[in-house]
Amino acid sequence: MRSHLVAGLLLGVLPWTAVALMGLGQQMYYPACGYACLNTLSAFPLSCTTHGHHDMGGDMPDMEMDMSSMATTTPACRAGDRAYLTTLAWCFHTKCADDAVPDWDLEKFWAEQATTDPTVAPKWSYGAALANISRPPTKELAADDTLNVTALVSQDAWTSEYGTMTTMEFVEAWHERYGLIIVLVGFGTPILFTALRHLPYMNRLLDRLNPYFIYPAIWGGRQVRPLPYNLGNAPTVGQALYVAVLVVLNVVMTAVSYRSFQPSVWYADQYQEVMVWVMYRTGVLAFALLPLTLLLAGRNNVLLWLSDWSHATYVLLHRWVARLFALQALLHSLLALVLYDRTGLYAGETSKPWWVWGAVATVAASVMLVASGLYVRRWSYEIFLISHVLLAVFVIVGCWYHIDLRFMRMFGYEQWLYAACAIWFFDRLIRFLRVLKAGVRRAKVTEIGEEFVRVDIEGVRWGTTPGQHAYIYFPTLNPLRPWENHPFSLLPSSILSPPSKHSSSTESASSDAEADHNPEKAIAADPEKMAIAPVTSTTAANKTTTTPAAASVPTPAGITFFIRKSGDLTRRLRSHASLLALLDGPYPNNSTAAALRCDRVLLVAGGIGITGVLPWARSSGHLNTRLCWSVRAEAEHLVDALGPAIEGVPDREVRVGGRRFDVRALVEDEVRAGWRRIGVVVCGPGSLCDEVRAVVAEIGRREACNGVVLELEVDAYSW
Fold first, then answer.
1. Residue 490 falls within a domain, yes or no?
2. pTM higher than 0.90 for the full model?
3. Where is the FAD-binding FR-type domain (predicted)?
4. Above 70 in pLDDT, residue 508?
5. For residues 407 and 405, what is the distance between their CA atoms, to the nearest angstrom?
C-alpha cells in the first residue's frame, strides 16, 4: 500500500500539462471510464512484454513483489498487441455507456492515451479495434493472468479505479472553486460597496451606517495608534468585517466538500484519504490567497482605481490576508508531516527537492509573520523593507519549485503563481513608468529649524487635487541603498505664495455664498468685517498677533514637501541647492469626493500633518473650510515657513506651543452652526487621528436622526 500512496499523492501517472484550474476549464480524468479501463489493464503483462532486472533504488517499493524482477511493456508493444487493443476497446464500449461519453471523445482519448504515450499511435482506431472483436468476451482477467486474448476486466478492479479517480476529481475541483471564491470575495467586496453608492437611495443608507461600521475602531479607540506592546494597528469595524468574512470563508472552505471512496487504489483507509484531501485543500487555498495578498499591498493596486477605499485600508487588509496565507501554508505543511510520518514515507521524501522547496516557502512565510511586526517596522523600516521583499521572493520561488518538481504542471496549481507574479510585476512596472514620466529632477532642500526640511522640486505639474502623496528617491543620499524611498504629502508650490487679489476676491465670493447659506456665519464671511476683525494665531504665551497681508510673489510651478527628520533617509537631508531626486506619484490618500461634496469642511492638523490638509483649503480644494492647526513650540519655524500659505485660509486658527484643540467642541460648533453635511479631515499624530475618529463616529450616530451627516477622512501614514 505504500507504493499506492505515493501514486495517490502524485494524483496520476500520465504525462500531460494543465492549462487551467481543475474543475474550471480543465478535467483531469475525462473520460473517467476510459482512464479506469486503461489503469486496470496496465497491471497485466502482454505477449510482447519483456522481463528484466532493474534497481529502482527503493523509490517506490512494493511490499508484495520482488523489485529485482520487473516486467516492461513499452508503448510500441501496446500499440500492436491485438489482445490488449480489443480488450481495451471492449472495456470502453461496455463501461462508458453509463457515462454517455460521445464516440468522438472516446476516439480522441484512444488516440492520445491507448498506448500510454501520445507520440505512439495504436495500429487501430477505437472503432476499428471494436470491429475486430468477433464475439463478446466471456473470460474475466484474474490477478496473475497474461493478457493474450480478448477478455473482460474485473468489475471490482475497474470500480476501484473509477471511484478513486472520480472522487479525486470531485475534491480537486472544489479545491480550485473555493480558492476562486475567496479571491472573488476579497477582490469584489470593495468594488461592490463602492458601486452601491450609485444606486438610488443607497447614499442615505450608507451615510447612516458609516458612524457604526466605517469610522469607529474595533479596539479601544485605537486605529492609527498601535495596540499595546506594538502588536499592530487595530482595524475599524468595517475592516474587521472584511477580515472576518475571509476568515470564516477559509475555515468553512477548509472543512467542507470532501468525499471518500473505499476501497481506494491509492489510500489504505478513509483517514489517510481524507487527510490527503485536506492537505491539498489548505495548499490550494494558500496559493489562492497569495495573489490577493500581493494585490492589496501594491501602490498601483487596481482596486484603488475601481473603489473608494483608501491605500491605508488596503495595506491593513494586506497584513491580515497575509496572515491567513501563512496559516494555511503552515497547516498544509503540518498535515504533510503527519501524513508522511504515519505512512512511513517521511524519511524517503523529505530530502527530495520538491519537499525542500516547499519547506523554504513555509519557513519564509513564517519568518515574515514575525519580521513584519510593527516593532520591527518602527525599529528599522529600511531593514523591514529589504527583508520583506527578499522573503517574499523566497516564498514565491519556493512555491513554484515545490509544485513544479512535484506535479510537473499537471494540475494547474501554477496558475495561482502566474497571477501573483503578474500582480507584482504590474505594480513594479507602473512604479518605474511613473518615475520615468516624472524624469530626473533636482530638489532644493532647505532646513527649517532642527526638525524639518523643505524640499522644492520645480517643473512638476501634478494638479492641485487635495489628499495626494508621492514617494521620493534621493539616490545620492545613501549610494549603498539607492532604492530607498518614502511617501510624503505633497503641496503644489503655488499655494505657498501669499494670496493674490484674484484669489482674495474668489474667497470673498465664497464667503458671501456661505453667508447666504448660513446667517450665523455672516460676520465671519463679510470681507469688510474681516478687515476689522482679523484672523488670529495663538502663541505659546497666549498672545494674539495680527499678520499683515504679504505682497504676492510669483512662485515657479512645481511641488513642495515638508519633511520631518525621523528615519535613516530623512535624517540625512541637509540644505542643498540641487539634490538628485526621483518621484513616484502622485497617489491619492483617500477618495476626496465625499468630503468635497459637503457644505462645510473642518480641517484638523497636528504638527507636520498640516501638509496633508492644507490643499483642502487652498488650490482646488473646498471653498468653505475651517482650519485648526496645533503645533509644538519647537515647530514654530514650520509655522513661519507655511505662513504665506496659511494666510490664504480665511477661517483659521493656529496654536503654537499651547494645548491641543478640543476636537469635540470643534465638531459640535459646526453642528450647532446648522451645517447639514460636514466633512472632517484630519492629519497628524496617531492620538489626534484616533480622537477625531472617535468623536466623529459618536456625534455622527447621535445627529443622524437630525439629518446631519459627518464625512470623515483620515490622512495618516500608519502603513
1. yes
2. no
3. 422-615
4. no
5. 6
